[in-house]
Amino acid sequence: MAFLNDYHVHTDNSMDCKFPMASMCEQALQAGVREIAFTDHLNHHLLDLDLGFYRADKYFADVEACRARYPDLKILAGIELGEPHRWWKRIAPIVDNYPYDLILGSVHWVGKESMFDANYYRGREPQQAYHEYFEEVVQMVNHGGFDILAHVDLPKRTAYGIYGAFDAAALEDDFRAVWQACIDNYITPEINTKSLRLSVAEAHPNMDALRWYVEMGGKRLTFGSDAHTPDSIGSGMGEARRIALGAGLHYICHFEGRRIIQWSPL
To answer: Which residues, in sequence order, are CB contacts of 234 under 8 Å at separation 6+?
Structure first.
């Protein structure tokens, strides 16, 4: 890959990451990453363990310090919003008043049920479990307020232990509904490689699902490792590139100031 970037990385500004931004920058440079977006969690679900954890002032102080310390690494200010369509009144004052370069949107909860809770899947047939999740994703994308759709088929991380191998073909209609919403609302999907490091051993999304996006006219794409530890930064990007090219996409997008400013060939 001519230009390696990673647009989904966490730091100790997220409750589920214990590593400071500087240590993530050090590893990014060692891994050959030249552009990185730190996308710490902002969650407002009342049952979420990190409710109230994120502090934008502290996050931006870290960004500015690391930009000064690591001039060879382009550092983008990002954030990962949990269910922004459900909590927008609480989210808007933050995203409207800080200079983010890109914003991820994620669904981690459907109603009061976490997508990381195995009981959600044990109580449902596979297609029902995924369909309810994808319906929530479509609502989020249609609401907007973010730039990049994170880990489109997140539930397969946990569902693999209950249902076994992920069957994208059985969910084609759901994927297409999400892709259409992305295209209509100018939302960029990511290839998220974290699930390559888990038992399901398959990226979000896989090549078949991404092909449907391309068939429908989708062109935008970013890559993200979803790293919560330094050794995961840049992980799986070769596989992400293979998936993108195999699906018919030949460029990745670069963001700045919440706009695509450049397309780089894969």
So the answer is: 4, 6, 28, 31, 32, 33, 225, 227
Distance CA 144, CA 17 (A): 27
Q: Supply the range of the domain harboring residue 41.
A: 5-265
CA distances 193 to 72, 151, 159, 200, 264, Å, are 24, 9, 17, 11, 19
CA-based diameter of the chain, in Å? 51
Query: Which pLDDT tens digit goes with each residue over 144-178?
Result: 999 999 999 999 999 999 999 999 999 999 999 99
115-145 pLDDT per residue, tens? 999 999 999 999 999 999 999 999 999 999 9
At 246, give phi and psi (nearest 5°).
Answer: -65, -30
| Segment 234-266, tens digit of pLDDT | 999 999 999 999 999 999 999 999 999 999 999
Domains held by the chain: number: 1
CATH of the domain at 208: 3.20.20.140
